[in-house]
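Action item from last week, closing it out:
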Amino acid sequence: MEHRGKSWEIIVPDLTGGPLELPVAGCAVPAGFPSPAEDFAEMSLDLNRELVRNPASTFFARVRGVSMTGEGIGDGDLLVVDRAAEVRDGALAVCCIDGEFTLKRIKTDKAAGCLWLMPAHPDYEPLRVTEEDDFRVWGVVRYVIKKF
């Protein structure tokens, strides 16, 4: 199932067909200094099992826009979002505020009695959320799959 909104493409994972096992190298790829060649014994990896903790409450969403580039999340990246995950201060979440979806980091402000939805780009202002706003957290981002 797919839903396209003004700024979101939401895709629900299809877990009915059994595991989709893909080959994976048997060792980690160093990101520091090059190391001598190692045996790359092939194993299999099921991305559904690796990325989806709660199948009934997980969806994928494609990012549109640049408000989170400071966190390395760019236009076209794919999010793995879990609606069953606990929403905590500092969580990266897909939120709906007054009918508009947005991806932001949640910051609680107990002194002011509100939440802030924090962008990660200097051209965007934080969004203040109070009890008067129609606000929901649709899910917590578990993984970001980069598009290069």
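Closing note: The longest strand covers residues 135-145.
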